[in-house]
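Lay summary. Proteins are chains of building blocks that fold into shapes, and those shapes determine what they do. In this project we predict the shape from the chain. Here is one chain we studied, written as its sequence of building blocks.
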Amino acid sequence: MLLKMDNGDLACLMRTGAPHIGTGSEVSISFSKDRGVTWSPYQLVARGAPNDDLDYRDHSLGQAEDGTLVVVYGILFGLKEVSRQDDRDPRARREEHIEVVRSVDGTTWSKPTFIPMPRPGVFVRPHGQMVRLLDGTLVFMARGHQSDEIHEEDSSADERVNFLYRSLDNGITWEEPTEIRSGWSETGFLPLTEDHWVAYVRHNHQPNQIAYSNDSGRTWPRWEPGSLISEAEPPSHLDGLSNIGHWRMVNGRPQKPSPGSVTRLSNGLILITYGYRAYPFGVRAVVSHNGGKDFDLGTEYILCDTAFSWDCGYPSTVCYDDGLVVTVAYTLMDIEHEEWGTSCVAYSYSQELFE
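And here is the predicted shape, written in a compact code that computers can read:
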């Protein structure tokens, strides 16, 4: 997760110390003083002990008006009760909660404090870039699932949920969150103006969509396809589906690109970067030439196509005033740099690519 700090340095928050699901995991941070060319050794922000049955995972990073760095992260617990196969079902992941820590120097962090869940029976964890509004409000997105009890009472209840949390006091306390849309998942969002926001929203079993808000992210009445209309429905048969267009197969179901990041470039274009999980795997982008009113989905830009497998992406993107764009994303291995292994990679390029 990438943040361009007020002094121009970059901070990248990442998961270290454990595989996709596992105890002993860490939330770590690395800094770059040369706009993503070189990075400091990562430093620990939070860690779960190997035997405590806790998985520290999924996080968001922002900077308050007073310069304080704010990190929110999720903790998944009950892992010993969950088999590897059951982990594919979010409702089998037992319970979760969110904590927040703060730092004035990026090295020492405050004692963690608890952020309540949105409502009883709903469990969420942070995702994506934290946004600081013009009035200093910090906003982060959290996504998750509903409990078994809710599904037992209402079999039509949506599996996934997503919410926006807001802090008016530099990340110390957080207001009751507002829901984006039940049934949807990881969301990258960007305030275009104080009132008008745009978001790139993932659905685990449908094409991603682009959503619009006219009341500062509290309601989202307009939803548009996040890919070409001609690709919005999967083929009638599944043979070879993983290599057709944007589609890939996960757990027997076709899925669209992984979550994305929404960024305003210094030339006014609005950029969405997202993981591309059909061969060749990597990171791709689309842009809006009219301030985010709509996006040119017919022109897809390849930012990276050297990821080893579909398990890649989750990009996070920032732009400097001179047009330099930096995107970070993860990959199990880069086929041009096998020595990197599983890694977080920073890609730098000019906004002129999209002009």
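What the prediction tells us: Helices lie at 148-153.
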